[in-house]
User: Fold these one by one.
Assistant:
Number 1:
Amino acid sequence: MGRVAVNELGPARYALLPVDEWPTGIGRLAANTVAAAGATLAIMAGAAALSIATWWARGGPRVVALRAIRLAAPLALMGVAHLVFMGALAHVVAAGSNSRYGFTAVAAIGTALALGAMVLIHGVAPGFANGLCRTLLVALVPVVAAVHGAPGTSTPREQLDAAWGAPARQLLDTGCTHVLGTGAHVWPTVFVALLLESHDDRAAATRGPWGLEFRDGPTSHLWRGWPRESFRIAFLREDARWVLDTLPRERSLGVLELVETKPHIEVYRLLPAGE
């Protein structure tokens, strides 16, 4: 990209998409959610399948299966309905159909699978089911610690730095005033960049970098009056396609010219009006 017309991102449009766009929005959110949480759902589905096989092999009573369905089905349907509804919302699509909008659906469906599995197992082997519950409760804390690290005041900072430190440092090194992309990527990058700045440097907090996305309204008045030549706007490279697909729908901010490329960002300057 050499020059690209970009747009001023205003408040998100909290409304349903046109009906003909629902399949695309729902499908994109479902795909992103499965990519982020598919392993969790696969484990829960595997446990449910194993419990069904155990119930069948032991000749479990039909009433147990009906009880499992009665308890699990509403939760599973709620999860699917939530995914469909969120996928059909304009602001979700504008935010890149990020998987965070599908995590409630994952929680509901995963809980439904676990609940149904436990009811089936308890119906044919109550002693085993009770022991399994106790084992899981005892193992929960060490398993979480093994996967995510032991609790500590430095853990959140380390995880933030591992996930967003590289693009945040590139923003600071290149003197970018703004970073543009989807909310799920913009705000963590901005927050980490500000954490890397000195806590006592109040001037740094007014320099930025500022986030540019559909929820930038509360801070936009702090930079909107700046001279155009002072803007250095970074595109997060993983959001480049979203930027090109989404921004033309909004009102024009101007034309950006590429001035620098880094591994995680592309840096643009805002051209003077008329160029």
Number 2:
Amino acid sequence: MNGSMWMASFWLFLAWGAFTGFAFYCRRQELSTIGYRPVAEGKVVDIRTEPAGGDRSRGEFHDLHYAVIEFFADGKLYSVKSPESEFPSIYYKGQKLNILYHKEDPEDYEILKPGRWSMGAKAANVVSFLFLIGGLICFFLAARG
């Protein structure tokens, strides 16, 4: 029994190391797709409505809904309009967003949405934490005898 607990703790710690390494790999891949552009935390301060023009004005929903986002870049506050306009708005007041902007022109930005690498890193962190807890439990049970 004691030998099997040592083996279980060894394999659980090994799995913990593998999943932690995978989480670091996912995070590195995510950062390589972003590049080295600065990231700021933005906040949706308002949802504005503008009348739609052209063919969209004949539709069921006549208005376009834009989020007004504020973020700081190089110590200066920028207030920009979201590039997407949908009904209903996909953003809400007070929502925090990660803004990826150009250092030369912070008003040229994009909203950073979590991608598959970000989701993979989060999942790997959760699984690695569970393997760590399981490994510690097995280790202390084996050490206790």
